[in-house]
Amino acid sequence: MNILKIILLNLLIFSFSFCSTFEEVSVKLSDSSFKVKEDVINELVSNHKENEKLESMLQNMLDGNLYFQNDSNEILILKNGNYLSLFSNQEIKTTNEPDKIKINNKLRSVIKSALAKINLFSSSEENRLNAAKNILSNLEEDNLSLINEALQKEKSSKVKEILVESEANLKAKYSTGSEQLEAIKKLGSFLSSKSMETLSSLSQTVSDEELKKEIKNSMIKIEDKKSIYSFIETAFFGLSLGSVLLLAAIGLAITFGVMKVINMAHGELIMIGAYTTYTIQQLMPNFIEYSVIIAIPCAFIVSGIVGILIERLVIRHLYGRPLETLLATFGVSLILQQLVRTIYSPLNQEVKTPSWMSGAWEINGALSLTYNRLYIVIFGIVVFLAVLYIMKKTSLGLKVRAVSQNRPIARAMGIKSSQIDAITFGIGSGIAGVAGVALSQLTNVGPNLGQAYIVDSFMVVVFGGVGNLWGTFIAAFTLGEINKFIEPLAGAVLAKVIILVFIILFIQKRPRGLFPQKGRDAQD
Questions:
Q1: What is the dihedral sign for C-alpha 336, 342, 344, 347?
Q2: What is the distance between the alpha carbons of residues 275 and 346, in angstroms, rounded to a whole number?
Q3: Residue 92 contacts residue 85 (beta carbons within 8 Å)
């Protein structure tokens, strides 16, 4: 029992002496010499890296919020206009203005390196991952022992991979003989810009032919892998563009297929959906995280109602007169644009992206997929499947297909074609509004937003086959992929011209598109 008391007493004494030593060393940061501050930081990291106050002190020093109070010989942190003691975390009332602990660029680099070392042994995997990335970005020769120590304790495969890459980079730069050769070979399996930078630097400095050959081989391996991942990334951007075209064209495919109406105001219905999202964020600023989800049904309803009004007030009087319908809907599009300019101003409006749609899914050093585009791809496919289900499995869908295939026979069977026209136009317009919600997460919202997609939407519908949903699906993703693969070679404008020429030539061979609509009405 006495032995236990002695051990506890010694531990208590040791903890007090440890804390006191940390305070004594930290106070030396008040010295005006940057060299002294650098030595103090290195000493703190070496002997006190497990002290939870050290990270806070260094971070505040880096942010310019660390001060020294001469009266009490204490280090203070400036937070929300108040000074807090670093050691007690209590607010300190100061009679004299504390002196700011200043740093220069070299010291800033030392602090960043020190923070990386501290976080490298943190209990949080995210902190360790960020620290490992920071070390890889700012490699120094003396980091090697630290990396080896971290590798022995590290359990996470993600963190380990970055540490192994850092180790290979350092050995390739500072080792000699077989160890350097092995490190250069290993660099060929990594994809970060740091490994390529190391290899490029070595290719200009080494004279050994064997090393030069291995450096070249490693660089070729990295370039080959990057080209594969670049292809995947471009294909992903093509998918995201295709999903936007799909959302924009589904509604047009339905209305064009059923009523044979060329609706030039379809782009403005997309714009209304985007402005609905913006309005919801303005009315509910505390619910930004849920604004996009709330906006989806709201945009569908608002755009759907506007679509039904257009059909009831304008289009229903012009059935069978396509030229007049085109001119009338073009006039409606101008009216809607001017209405938006009057209400919201002609300037573009920014729609905030929720945190769960921000950032990117980093697969490796050469490939990352942005979450907003990934969600839009998934959303586009879900909307398509929902519309497909309605059209194929519900009584409404059956009536819509009956009207689209043979309007006179559908009427003879008791189907109210005028009512189906209004409902169909409302659904198509609502889907256009939903497309506007998706677009608001990719670009700024403005009065001309819809005009950028109306021509592309018509191209998708014509290419896929008027009124055929599967044709629209395949055409949207095909044109999206072609566009994104041509853009880097020909530029954005020329890419659209090439696609337009391609569609014109295609229509010459297949006037009714990839999947032509069936039925007597389709033959007319």
A1: positive
A2: 12
A3: yes
E strand segments, 40-109: 66-69, 74-79, 82-85, 99-100
Is 70 exceeded by the pLDDT of residue 11?
no
2-16, 20-34, 412-426, 440-454 — which is least confidently predicted? 2-16
Q: Tell me, what amino acid is at 454?
A: I
The terminus-to-terminus CA distance of the chain in angstroms comes to 103
Q: Could you give the CA distance from residue 311 to residue 251 in angstroms, rounded to a whole number?
A: 14
262 has a pLDDT exceeding 90:
no
Query: Looking at residue 381, what is its pLDDT?
Result: 93
- Quick one: how far is CA 123 from the chain centroid? 28
Kindly write down the DSSP assignment for every residue of 286-351, as one continuous string.
Answer: GGHHHHHHHHHHHHHHHHHHHHHHHHHHTGGGSTT-HHHHHHHHHHHHHHHHHHHHHHH-SS-BPP
pLDDT above 80: residue 101: yes
Order of strands, sheet of 82-85, starting from the edge strand that comes earlier in the sequence: 82-85, 74-79, 66-69, 99-100
pTM of the model: 0.73
Distance of alpha carbon 111 from alpha carbon 61, whole angstroms: 8
Q: Which residues contact 439 (CB under 8 A, 6 or more apart)?
A: 244, 270, 273, 274, 445, 449, 453
Across 356-491, where does the E strand assignment appear? 360-364, 367-370
Contacts of 413 by beta carbon, 8 Å cutoff, 6+ apart: 402
pLDDT given for residue 49 in this prediction: 60
How many beta carbons lie within 10 A of that of residue 122, not counting itself? 14
d(CA 428, CA 304) in angstroms, rounded, equals: 7
For residues 191-216, give the mean pLDDT.
84
To 10 degrees, what angle do helices 322-344 and 266-283 make? 20
Q: State the average pLDDT over residues 390-404.
A: 82
